[in-house]
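Work Package 3 (structural annotation) set out to generate three-dimensional models for the target panel prioritized at the project kickoff. During this period the team completed the workflow that converts sequence records into discrete structure tokens, so that structures can be stored uniformly alongside our sequence database. As a representative example, we reproduce one entry of 173 residues exactly as it appears in the project archive.
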Amino acid sequence: MNLQNTWLKYGLIYGGISIVLALYSYYISSIGLWTQTLISFLVMIGVMVFASREYKEIHEGVLPYGEALKLNFLVGFVGLFISGIFSLILIQLIDPSIIDTLKDQALESSRVILEKLGTSEEVINDALEKTEEDFQSRFTPGAMFLNILTSAIFVLVVAAIVSIFVKKDQSIG
């Protein structure tokens, strides 16, 4: 199995898991935006590690840093792209009411955080009002596509860090 087959396989797995996680949170039981983000982050790292292990098994235990970075970035980006396109289709074409669910979750999460920080009620209300006004614009097709692209920077950073730990250079001698 070559590099392309590995990143494509695990990118599809990551994208599929992300979609299932989102659907669960939207329609079955809201796990909250922060929890969903954390779980998705951990899943991404786990899938990168599994992809790296499989690649090393096939290549006699060798995975140079450059190859690891390429592999892990592509795994993360493919999964992110699949999940992002699915969300775009879901929100724009299938169920636009999800925006209201996401807005409610975001407002509640923001309120909890601001209250824990000891923010005054007036400042909290102003911040939540501003968030609510700006929320709809986050879900235009252009904004959602731009979010996918800018998230690639985050994926690159995670891939770079994961690659440090999974790399294995060829033994000399």
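The radius of gyration is 19 Å.
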